Structure formats: structure tokens, C-alpha cells
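R.M. (postdoc): so does anyone remember the format we settled on? I'll just put the C-alpha cells first.
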């Protein structure tokens, strides 16, 4: 294998082969870059400058696939391409590993973006393994420097790096411009666990309601309460960015309890306004299932607000159920006997066996939105969806499809006799006031 690895060649434009470097020279280091960049930015009044932060996606993979030595060669090649792309008065530095910084001049942001795309394309075509181009995936963050800026060069670099890191792993996007909200967002995510209790007191958690629709009548017949964290005005952090952390640290219980209580308060309020209230489902983290007081506690809260239990559905993910298949059905049975409807959330996301369906005392199965991805196009996916829906219905479950985004999906689900749908096609999760308007209009 090692012998084969050394056959790998790297080329620039015209297939030029780089020798294996004994001591690779990756060009300027960061200290030199800062000093020179500072000079250029401060001295030249005319051109706009921008900092570009460059990083290869999953570079560890390159090292793993082709070996460390070849990994070094790839980095050297990246450095060559980046360096070759520079114009007069521009700089390139190696930050370490697969990370680089460029100082570029530009006229307009659009032109700067095009240039970054061009650099990316040159890189994508410059690495050759056995005559085949290796498609390097990368991310670039851009910070356009304001000519009146008083920021230090280090702060500017941080902003470019932040823009680059803000591109999610799963995104198709590979270039991102820095925006102030990214920094606020990053600050907001610091020490989340320690900030939970004060944030609960400050009422920083807000509920968005996402309607669920009956596929036959197209009427809203329920909704799901989804939490968001308003850390400061204008910053709304989605649950995916704090719930897993709170779950891992065991601090999720007070938050879920708070959301449950807020939902009870909202339903009470709507009832008093004479609105036709529909059931609201609330997510329950697996941590609750080990609390002996869960049933009594939730019963007490619901009674305090005078909310009929059938209006309060509890959603448990299939992964939580699979974690303890013996104990959890017992806990769920107690909740069901108390009168709370139960549903299995994200069913089919990949954690459990179908057998589980026979032991679970839930009335509803919510199909994971993964089923919606290709369901309309592929026959195999349609067959899977058709049979899952049929199976669940034959077993007596109500079936809700999650993540429904297109008309074609709605038509297919109707044809497959799925009961309900939740997704952007019908409505995104809505702030309380907007949701109230839909309720009032019913
Ligand atoms: P979930 O319970 O499965 O909620 C559905 C998620 O799918 C929501 O994401 C919703 O915004 C999103 N969604 C709905 N329709 C569509 C669609 O058509 N397309 C796409 N791409 N997405 C759609 P959200 O609000 O970010 O919540 C993520 C997860 O965070 C929830 O998944 C739930 O597991 C968890 N979560 C939310 N609120 C709470 C809470 O109060 N307590 C606990 N323990 N978990 C919560
Ligand atoms: Mg849910
Ligand atoms: Mg779900």
C-alpha cells in the first residue's frame, strides 16, 4: 500500500509533478502575514481589502486514504494554487494543517465572491491520483474590511475564520461572507449549560408552534411546540444547537418541564378567548423517563391550568425508546393511562427494530422526515413508505408524516392513506401570535 501511495502525483494546470518534499515549505507563517497585512491595509487608502480563510473539508480523510506524507504534498499543492492566484499587493499564509489565510484586494463583493469561486475551481482540478482528479472539498470564509475599520488584524482574521466555520458540514455552500450575527451567535453558544437556569428565569426560551394537517380535509388538527432560545434581541438559537448539549449534561428536564407548562398556559389562554383549541404535542427527552415523578408532575401542571389531558400529546423519539426497551413502555403506559396521548417521534430514523412497535403504548407514529427525501421520485422509496404506513395503520397507529415540503409529497401521502402531515409545505413553525391567528380563523 505504502509503495502505491508514493506513485501519487500532484499537478498544477499542466500536470506538473511535484517531488516529494523532505521539508515542505508552506510559505509565510501567521506572524509575517499579520505584520505585512497590517502595513498594506493601513497604508493603502484606495483598494478595498478582504481576508479569506481557507480550510479543506474532512482533511483527515485525505491523510487516512493516502497517508501522512501524501497529505503533506496535498497541502503543499494547495499552497501553490493559492499563491499562484495572488495579484500584486496580496498575501497568503499557512496557519497550520489544511488552514490558510489570504489577503485579497477587491472592487465589489460580487467580484470577490467570483474570485473565491475561481480559486476553488482551480484547486478542485489540481490534485491528481493515478490520472484521476481528486475532488477536494473546501470551505472559504470572507471578511470584507471596511476602510474605516479600527479592528486589529487578528480580529479581522477571526471574523474570516468564523464565516468559514459557519458553513454547516452538510451544506452545499462553500463560500460565506462574515456577518455580525455570526459573532453574536458564537457568543451566545458559550457555556450554554451554565446559562440554562438563569435563562429560564429570564424567560429567554420561546415556543414556536408548527401546525399539523389532516391530509383528507386539509384542516389544521394539531400542532407541535418547538423551543427556540432568544439569547438577545435578534438572536434565535434553534433547538438542534442546545438540546443535545443539555441532554448530554442532564439539564434538559427543567427546560422540557418549562415548555410543557408554557404550552398549558397558552392553551388555557386560548380556551378563555373561546378559540377552538387543537391538541399540542410537546417533546419529552429520554432523561424524564428515569424520573419517578414524571407522571404526577405533568398531571399536576396540566390540572393547575385546567387543560384537558387529551390536548397535551407527549412525543418521544424512537431513539429514546430504543435506549431502554424494557423500562420505557412501563413509564409510557402510566402516562397513557393518565390520559396523555403519546407519539413516537422520528420513527425510522434508524435506531430501533420494527418489533418495538408491538410493545409501545403510543397512539401515533411520526415518520422521520428522512422518508420524504426521495420518496416521490424513487419506486423503492415509495414501496418502503407505502408499506410502513400500511403496517403502522394495521397496528392501529395514527400516522403523521414529518418534513413534508412539496405538493407531490402531499399527493403521494394522501394516496397512501397517511393520516396527517407536518412540514414547510403547510406551514413552518410559527411564533405564538401567528399561530394564534390561524387558531382564531378556524
Ligand atoms: P422534532 O420533534 O422531530 O421536530 C420537527 C423538526 O423538523 C423541527 O425542527 C421542525 O422545524 C423541522 N421541520 C418541520 N417541517 C419541516 C420540513 O418540511 N422540512 C425540514 N427540513 N424540517 C422541518 P426544530 O424546531 O429545529 O427542532 C429540532 C428538534 O429539536 C425536534 O425535532 C426535537 O427533537 C427537538 N426539540 C424541539 N423542541 C424541544 C423541546 O422543547 N424539548 C426537547 N426535549 N426537544 C425539543
Ligand atoms: Mg417532535
Ligand atoms: Mg420529529
Amino acid at each position: 500500500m505504502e509503495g502505491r501511495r508514493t506513485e501519487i502525483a500532484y499537478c498544477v494546470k499542466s500536470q506538473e509533478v511535484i517531488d516529494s518534499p523532505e521539508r515542505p515549505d508552506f510559505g509565510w507563517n501567521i506572524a509575517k502575514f499579520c505584520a505585512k497585512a497590517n502595513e498594506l491595509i493601513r497604508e493603502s487608502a484606495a483598494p478595498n481589502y478582504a481576508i479569506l480563510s481557507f480550510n479543506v473539508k474532512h482533511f483527515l480523510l485525505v491523510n487516512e486514504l493516502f497517508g501522512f506524507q501524501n497529505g503533506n504534498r496535498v497541502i503543499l499543492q494547495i499552497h501553490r494554487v493559492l499563491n499562484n492566484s495572488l495579484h500584486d499587493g496580496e498575501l497568503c499564509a499557512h496557519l497550520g494543517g489544511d488552514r490558510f489565510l489570504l489577503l485579497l484586494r477587491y472592487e465589489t463583493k460580487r467580484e470577490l465572491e467570483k474570485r473565491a469561486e475561481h480559486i476553488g475551481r482551480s484547486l478542485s482540478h489540481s490534485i491528481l491520483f493515478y490520472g484521476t482528479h481528486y475532488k477536494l472539498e473546501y470551505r472559504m470564509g470572507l471578511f470584507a474590511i471596511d476602510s474605516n475599520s479600527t479592528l486589529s488584524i487578528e480580529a479581522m482574521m477571526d471574523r474570516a475564520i468564523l464565516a468559514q466555520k459557519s458553513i454547516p458540514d452538510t451544506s452545499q455552500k462553500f463560500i460565506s461572507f462574515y456577518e455580525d450575527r455570526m459573532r453574536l451567535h458564537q457568543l451566545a453558544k458559550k457555556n450554554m449549560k451554565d446559562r440554562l437556569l438563569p435563562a429560564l428565569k429570564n424567560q429567554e426560551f420561546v415556543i414556536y408552534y408548527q401546525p399539523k394537517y389532516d391530509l383528507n380535509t386539509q384542516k389544521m388538527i394539531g400542532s407541535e411546540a418547538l423551543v427556540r432560545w432568544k439569547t438577545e434581541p435578534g438572536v434565535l438559537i434553534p433547538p438542534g444547537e442546545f438540546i443535545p448539549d443539555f441532554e448530554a449534561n442532564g439539564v434538559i428536564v427543567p427546560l422540557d418541564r418549562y415548555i410543557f407548562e408554557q404550552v398549558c398556559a397558552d392553551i388555557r389562554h386560548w380556551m378563555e378567548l373561546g378559540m377552538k383549541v387543537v391538541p399540542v404535542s410537546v417533546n419529552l427527552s429520554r432523561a424524564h423517563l428515569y424520573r419517578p415523578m414524571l407522571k404526577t408532575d405533568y398531571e399536576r401542571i396540566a390540572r393547575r391550568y385546567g387543560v384537558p389531558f387529551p390536548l397535551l400529546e407527549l412525543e418521544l423519539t424512537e431513539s429514546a425508546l430504543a435506549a431502554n426497551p424494557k423500562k420505557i413502555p412501563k413509564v409510557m403506559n402510566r402516562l397513557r393511562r393518565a390520559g396523555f396521548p403519546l407519539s413516537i417521534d422520528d420513527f425510522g430514523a434508524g435506531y430501533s427494530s420494527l418489533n418495538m412497535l408491538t410493545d409501545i403504548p403510543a397512539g401515533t407514529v411520526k415518520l422521520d422526515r428522512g422518508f420524504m427525501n426521495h420518496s416521490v421520485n424513487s419506486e423503492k422509496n415509495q414501496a418502503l413508505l407505502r408499506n410502513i404506513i400500511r403496517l403502522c395503520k394495521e397496528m392501529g397507529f395514527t400516522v403523521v408524516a414529518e418534513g413534508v415540503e412539496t405538493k407531490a409529497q402531499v399527493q403521494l401521502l394522501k394516496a397512501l392513506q397517511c393520516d396527517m402531515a407536518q412540514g414547510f409545505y403547510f406551514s413552518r413553525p410559527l411564533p405564538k401570535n401567528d399561530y394564534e391567528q390561524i387558531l382564531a380563523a378556524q
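R.M.: ...and that's the designed sequence above, right after the C-alpha cells. Also worth knowing: Residues 210, 226-227, 238-240, 243, 252, 256, 259, 283, 285, 315, 345-346, 369, 402-405, 422-424, 429 surround C2E (ligand 1) (CB under 6 Å). The chain has two domains: 11-178, 192-441.
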